Amino acid sequence: MVDAAISKNVQALLVPTVRAADCLPVKELVHQFGTQMPGLVYTLGIHPIYIIQAKESDVDIVEQHIIESLSDPRFVGVGEIGLDYFVEDLDLHQQDFFFNAQLDLAEKYQLPVILHVRRSQDAILKALRRRKIPGGIAHAFNGSMQQAEQFIALGFKLGFGGAATYERALQIRRLLKELPIESIVTETDSPDIPPAWLRSEDIAFNEPAFLPRIAHELAHIRGIEELEFANAAWRNAMQVLPRWSALCATNPALQIAS
Question: Mean pLDDT, 10 residues at a time, over the chain (258 residues)?
Fold first, then answer.
């Protein structure tokens, strides 16, 4: 998968964890393949969809991994964390516990966060306002323009990917067209949120190698040149995730998208 991404000129990838048990394996995988892709990084956290499998003590496990990773240049933040008000079987009180506990870790160690914000934008904004967190990314953003502006005011960038490639995604496309270019980052969310063409081409699953084609589609929707869009998305990601920027700064080939 890394080789396929490199073959498409993908220079950097962020790999989030979704369970406490993933923290060490993800860290080891990122270091294993970091020689092939110098811009490969990771975040640490418990995803709201996986809280069914989690214990409250898992937050302590995540914190210990965060402490151990603070000296690791490939560790860039806390995530993927958040709230999911779409999946019906998720306990709201349990979600609140894990989300707020991990936001506390982000504030304690002054780390940016990767947020899962499915139908939960207002609740997440309320939790963020109670803390001083150095921004992050609201991934797969699909809220209103007003909500988008509030996330931006709190220091967040907004993630756009395969969902915008569907013609029926009118709200996402409107956001992509009208938001400041300085607020946009690109993503695949692989293996989820496949772009529109995967179904017609009978491709089994979404993967990071599709990022350039997704960026091409997003630039077209935005109405700007692909290189301009790619460079802006790169700068935005580096700005909001300064540890990632510091890592890429050690490699001249990674200081700007090409």
Answer: 96 97 98 96 98 96 98 98 94 97 98 97 98 97 97 98 96 98 97 87 84 97 96 97 96 66
Distance of CA 42 to the CA centre of its chain: 10
Q: With contact defined as beta carbons under 8 Å apart, do 158 and 133 qualify?
A: no
Q: Is the distance from CB of 129 to CB of 150 less than 8 angstroms? A: no
In this prediction, residue 255 carries a pLDDT of 62
Burial 189-214 (b: 16+ CB within 10 A, else e): bbeebbbbebeeeeeeebbbbbbbeb
Q: What one-letter code names the amino acid at 88?
A: E
The number of beta carbons lying within 10 Å of the beta carbon of residue 15 is 16
State the Cα–Cα distance between residues 158 and 152, nearest whole angstrom.
8
Q: How is residue 247 written in tokens?
A: 């890592």
The span from the CA of 138 to the CA of 179, in Å, is 14
Tokens encoding 43: 């975040």
**Axis crossing angle, helix 145-153 with helix 121-129, rounded to the nearest 10:** 20
Read off the pLDDT of residues 124-176 as tens digits, 9 standing for 90 and up: 999 999 999 999 999 999 999 999 999 999 999 999 999 999 999 999 999 99
Q: Which residue segments constitute the domains of the chain, with CATH numbers given?
A: 2-254 (3.20.20.140)
Hey, what are 42's tokens?
Answer: 């990771």
Token readout for 19 is: 């369970």
pTM to 2 decimals? 0.96
The answer to whether 173 and 223 have CB atoms below 8 angstroms apart is: no
138 secondary structure, DSSP code: E
Strand order, beta sheet including 75-84: 12-16, 39-44, 75-84, 113-118, 136-139, 156-160, 184-186
For residue 136, the one-letter residue type is G
